Write a sequence for this structure.
């Protein structure tokens, strides 16, 4: 019965996923506009994807993309300091932004009545950002605080940073998106201005508008406000290619904590690697939901860890297959490693049973569908597909791409990526443990 | 029973400048006392169901804090003919997502599934709600995991400060003294027998609100829902404790020592309101301006102008019993006093001067503009809001009349509410940080101060 239900589910998704329709337009300055209509709520999500992130940085100025994400809210020519937020909230809107290794994304949510204001304010800061030295200093404090919270006062954040710095020895993915503490203290006005010139060109940006609008509402505004922004040179290509790993790497962090942590990283391909759908299926088989192999074995059966995290994320340059575990009291990271390696090895040795493969596909497709429930979910997905897979329209092929993955693919790819020489292991060893026992 | 077919595909039919309205739904009382609410809408082929049991932390026996959360977790670990692993497998096979939890006044289960899998998904949901078996080995496992989760939360001061605040702000015996999750002490007392007893008290028809929203035909779906919601015994409606205001007769400061912390996490509380309080809309506006959005006075002063923190906000509790209004932020150890002084300065000016017409207009637009996507966009949001109205005994006018009530507010009514609630007197300070570095300097904030180690069991403060 369950298997039958699963097959039904896949059929339903393959048809329905065609529902994402977009009007696409490229302005004369190279800025791409994607418009998706959804009239369920009288609101709009406006997402701007700039193809610049920590991969475009250099030692000494790490974290500057993320810092710049903050600076974009600190005043431009027409709308001065604080005005972006003040005007937006007054018009019923709200915003946020995020920076990753690959992109910097500005996310605006507002009632449709604020549409023109948002285009005006976004154009203003893309073209004419101001750089007030006093504001730069204040924002430095804000970003330092963000770093202290997400890294220094978080065992997870501390180990994650050390793991990446070990897994990559050459490529810029080795440094944290938030930047090293010394660099946050040190970057200069010239660094900021150079970064702005490099990243914030209209031809380096994809704009997604999703919600209670039509192309006839959006295109005239895009032409009026965005088209006059001059085209610039896009960021130079990232030249460094991470050399193949030649053997296992390990990193240990000692710090006060109640519980140990274990993280593993394996090198994999970039988003456009033809095997990426296979990585996604492997991710789900191993870590997706409570029925996944690693959850069942490590959390439920052997009770070695509190949770299983990690997986794969699409990236522009070759990325990582990551595993994270909060190790239980009295257990050792080494015990978790032993069981984990057995599971990874088994995936490369034995074909995955048909039902289990079907389950993983169902989970991926249902999760994919959940991202399409909201206008902001759709805006984020459309922009991500455009940037990482080369076209928003890949969304409509996503179910078929997953459906094509075979048990042979899973075995072949698992055997290739989960080799000891391709892995980096990181452990966090609590320092207070001995003290507590005394 | 009237069924609500033929409603618009749109959840909202009018523009933001006018009013918002809940889509049509049906509500019926089943013979066992359960409330069943159905809201069909056909925008995506997904269905959300939500089963909410009144009770939550309020219903927990003394010393058993967090037992509701543990019971809820245990209900999905073996039910009917299915083992825990079988339930996990069956749900994942359907691509269904199950979440569950407990808050101050209720326990909930939320399941989302593809409409074509309704019979299979609802069968699993029914087993979990009405036929849990509470296997002994699963109970031992869940309790051990819970104990480790408490340990892990003490490694993350940003998460722990909220728990410590509750254990300090509310007096012994108050149900909100605990945050709904167990601590090291209660987890040692909870066992399978207590969990079963708690389930029997909680899982009564009279306590159940069952809501479904999404892509279903009520004619086919209602019998499935009735079969599940109607299967529980009527039971006794839970005793709800009478509202009691925390007695705050003098300023106090609790400092939780985490010697390795490089910043101080702080929460500063004063008595607030409950969910049905007549000032709630005025205070929602007030709190939005004080610390409820990016341009709020607190965030503007501490983050934007001073660069002392990544974020400063204020929390306005809206639960069944009166809660707190609390300032919440963090700052490097060395700037602890500076940041708290600044926050108090913002509070003092706000309590004295209130808000202007321009601020009121801005906050009103902000709340209205965000409301549709925050609360009414998806089926699971609609389930959540409909259950909330039932839990707090509020009618649909709470939503349908919300914008009207916002429009009716004047500067005078908002400022009167601010004067009644926002105060600089008898503030309650809860700090998590490096005590040896800040203890002397923060003593000035309150005459009564206590320092405890983060290694001390539990989150409750000693009385002082």
């Amino acid at each position: 019965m369950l298997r039958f239900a699963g097959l039904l589910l896949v059929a339903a998704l393959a048809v329905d996923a065609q529902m994402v329709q977009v009007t696409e337009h490229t302005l004369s300055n190279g800025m791409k506009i994607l418009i998706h209509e959804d009239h369920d709520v009288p609101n709009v999500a406006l997402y701007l994807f700039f193809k610049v992130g920590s991969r475009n940085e250099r030692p000494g100025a790490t974290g500057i993309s993320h810092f710049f994400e903050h600076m974009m809210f600190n005043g431009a020519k027409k709308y001065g300091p604080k005005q972006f937020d003040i005007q937006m909230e007054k018009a019923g809107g709200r915003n946020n932004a995020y920076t990753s290794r690959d992109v910097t994304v500005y996310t605006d949510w507002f009632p449709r009545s604020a549409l023109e204001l948002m285009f005006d304010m976004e154009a203003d800061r893309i073209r004419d950002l101001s750089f007030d030295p006093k504001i730069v200093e204040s924002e430095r404090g804000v970003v330092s605080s963000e770093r202290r919270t997400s890294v220094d006062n978080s065992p997870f954040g501390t180990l994650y940073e050390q793991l990446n710095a070990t897994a990559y020895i050459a490529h810029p993915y080795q440094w944290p998106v938030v930047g090293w503490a010394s660099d946050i203290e040190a970057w200069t006005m010239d660094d900021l201005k150079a970064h702005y010139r490099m990243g914030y060109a209209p031809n380096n940006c994809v704009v997604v508008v999703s919600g209670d609008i039509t192309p006839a509402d959006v295109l005239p505004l895009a032409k009026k406000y965005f088209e006059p922004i001059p085209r610039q040179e896009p960021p130079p290509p990232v030249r460094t290619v991470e050399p193949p790993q030649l053997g296992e790497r390990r990193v240990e962090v000692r710090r006060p904590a109640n519980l140990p942590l274990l993280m593993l990283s394996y090198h994999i391909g970039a988003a456009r690697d033809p095997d990426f759908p296979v990585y996604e299926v492997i991710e789900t088989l191993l870590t997706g939901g409570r029925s996944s192999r690693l959850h069942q074995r490590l959390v439920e059966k052997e009770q070695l860890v509190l949770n299983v995290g990690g997986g794969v994320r699409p990236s522009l340059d070759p990325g990582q297959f990551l595993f994270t575990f909060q190790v239980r009291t009295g257990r050792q990271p080494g015990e978790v490693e032993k069981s984990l390696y057995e599971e990874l090895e088994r995936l490369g040795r034995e074909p995955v049973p048909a039902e289990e493969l079907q389950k993983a596909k169902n989970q991926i497709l249902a999760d994919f569908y959940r991202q399409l429930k909201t206008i902001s979910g759709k805006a984020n997905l459309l922009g991500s597909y455009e940037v990482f897979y080369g076209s928003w329209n890949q969304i409509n092929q996503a179910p078929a791409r997953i459906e094509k993955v075979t048990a042979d693919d899973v075995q072949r790819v698992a055997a290739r990526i989960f080799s000891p020489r391709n892995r980096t292991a990181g452990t966090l060893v609590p320092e207070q443990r001995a003290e507590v026992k005394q | 029973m009237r069924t609500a077919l033929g409603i618009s595909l749109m959840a909202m039919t009018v523009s933001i400048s006018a009013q918002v309205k809940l889509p049509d739904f049906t509500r019926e009382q089943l013979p066992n006392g359960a409330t069943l609410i159905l809201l069909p809408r056909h925008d995506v082929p997904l269905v959300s169901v939500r089963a909410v049991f009144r009770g939550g932390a309020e219903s927990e026996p003394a010393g058993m804090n967090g037992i509701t959360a543990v019971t809820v977790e245990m209900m999905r670990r073996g039910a009917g003919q299915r083992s825990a692993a079988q339930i996990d497998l069956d749900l994942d096979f359907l691509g269904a997502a199950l979440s569950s939890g407990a808050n101050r006044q209720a326990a909930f289960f939320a399941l989302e599934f593809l409409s074509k899998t309704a019979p299979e998904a609802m069968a699993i949901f029914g087993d979990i709600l009405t036929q849990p078996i509470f296997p002994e080995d699963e109970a031992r496992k869940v309790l051990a995991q819970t104990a480790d989760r408490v340990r892990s939360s003490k490694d993350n001061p940003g998460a722990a400060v909220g728990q410590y605040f509750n254990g300090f702000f509310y007096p012994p015996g108050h149900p909100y003294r605990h945050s709904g999750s167990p601590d090291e002490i209660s987890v040692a007392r909870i066992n399978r027998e207590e969990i079963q007893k708690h389930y029997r008290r909680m899982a009564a028809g009279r306590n159940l609100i069952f809501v479904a929203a999404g892509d279903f035909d009520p004619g086919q779906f209602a019998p499935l829902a009735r079969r599940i919601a109607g299967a529980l015994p009527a039971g006794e409606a839970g005793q709800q404790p009478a509202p009691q205001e925390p007695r705050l007769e003098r300023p106090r400061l609790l400092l939780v020592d985490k010697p390795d912390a490089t910043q101080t996490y702080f929460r500063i509380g004063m008595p607030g309101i409950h969910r049905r309080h007549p000032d709630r809309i005025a205070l929602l506006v007030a709190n939005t301006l004080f610390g409820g959005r990016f341009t709020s006075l607190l965030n503007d002063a501490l983050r934007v102008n001073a660069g002392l923190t990544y974020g400063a906000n204020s929390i306005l509790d809206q639960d069944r019993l009166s809660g707190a209004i609390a300032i919440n932020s963090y700052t490097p150890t060395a700037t602890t006093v500076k940041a708290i002084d600044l926050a108090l300065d913002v509070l003092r000016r706000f309590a004295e001067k209130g808000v202007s017409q321009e601020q009121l207009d801005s906050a009103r637009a902000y709340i209205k503009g965000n409301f549709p996507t925050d609360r009414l966009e998806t089926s699971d949001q609609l389930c959540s809001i409909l259950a909330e109205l039932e839990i707090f005994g509020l009618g649909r006018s709470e939503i349908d009349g919300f914008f009207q009530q916002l429009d009716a507010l004047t500067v005078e009514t908002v400022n009167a509410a601010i004067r009644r609630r926002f105060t600089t007197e008898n503030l309650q300070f809860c700090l998590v940080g490096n005590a040896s570095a800040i203890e002397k300097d923060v003593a000035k904030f309150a005459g009564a101060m206590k320092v405890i180690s983060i290694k001390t069991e539990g989150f409750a403060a000693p009385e002082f």
